[in-house]
Amino acid sequence: MNAESTTNMMNAEAATNLLNNFVLEQKGQPLDRLQQAIVQGVLEGMTYQEIKDNYPIARHFSIGFLARCKAYDLWKLLTEIFQDAGIISPDEKVRNKNLWESIMRLKQHIEKSESADDRPPVPLDSMLDRKLRMRYRVTEHLVSTEFSDTYLAEDEDVPDRPLCAVKRLKSQADETTKLFEREARVLCKLGKHDRIPELLARFQEDGYFYLIMQFIEGQPLSQELKEGQPWEEHEVCALLQEILEILAFVHQHDVIHRDVHPDNLIRRANDSKIVLIDFGTVKEINLSQNSRGQTQSRGGTHREYMPPEQAIGSPKLCSDVYAVGLLGIQALTGLSPKELKVNQETGDLMWREKARVSSKFACFLDNMVRYHFPQRYPSAIEALQALKNLC
Predict the structure, then answer these.
(1) What are the C-alpha distances in Å from 62 to residues 51, 105, 262?
(2) Would 226 be classed as within a structural domain?
(3) What pLDDT is recorded for position 358?
């Protein structure tokens, strides 16, 4: 490498180039464009949401894929290369939290000398490398929303330091506090389910509220639903059964998820099972109301998967059923929901001519996504039973 690559003070772009050249020398091929975008974005203090928004190469990927798959593999690759080169010790890892430091050590390794001017910049996010409750070491900033920030952390109290998700509330205003309490209450209410992230801890520290949840390693369903690549009917049937099994459990506890979409369905890495994540918009049902499952709360599912009653602030159990049915149609047709036409008289979706599907299975899906909610399966429980009778 030439001296021009190792100036005393580097910006994020120069640091990324330095790292990329080193990977090329060690592995015979450079980082791909998406990996370079992640490196530069992390060095600039971006969340994965901001990386997705600011780098064109990342815009077609979900936040979950960037954090759970691409970045995970990237840190693993860099750790291997840095350990082999003797830049870090065998028990150290290259991660989001120490990327600047690792690149500075690489620079020193190249120049064979140390310089006081090579101190890594202070991370823009003070949460990185912070240890919560003397246990949870924050490593990466995943996403920022109106009400909260979500981070990746390692549980240092457990062997192998398993990953967990840390959700921090941005304020203590009544509305955000209610959202926090609701999510914690619902996760506790649901208890332990093999395909729902477990709530590990709930606490307040330094003026902030925190939720610590099990982190599910795997690929979001959005990476499997490729435009123009329809699935076979039996594959869709198996997928819907997995999702409805989870939702049936949720609905049995009188809880509406309200945010069922491909990025919140994770294909777990260790067993390929579907896991439903992100209960931040769940709504418990007031059973004293006349209409079972009715609430008066807005928000939730991505608009593409949102049924009309939820869009006006009145989600029901069958609102989750609608979202799942739409996922099934998307898989069968290879079309995104926004590409589907609507019958102007009934409001129902027109999709059958775009798919190779049996009439019975098509009727089942139609009954999941009826425009008028009373015509749908009342909950995932009934939808699951109807599906089992078909498949």
Answers:
(1) 11, 32, 9
(2) yes
(3) 96
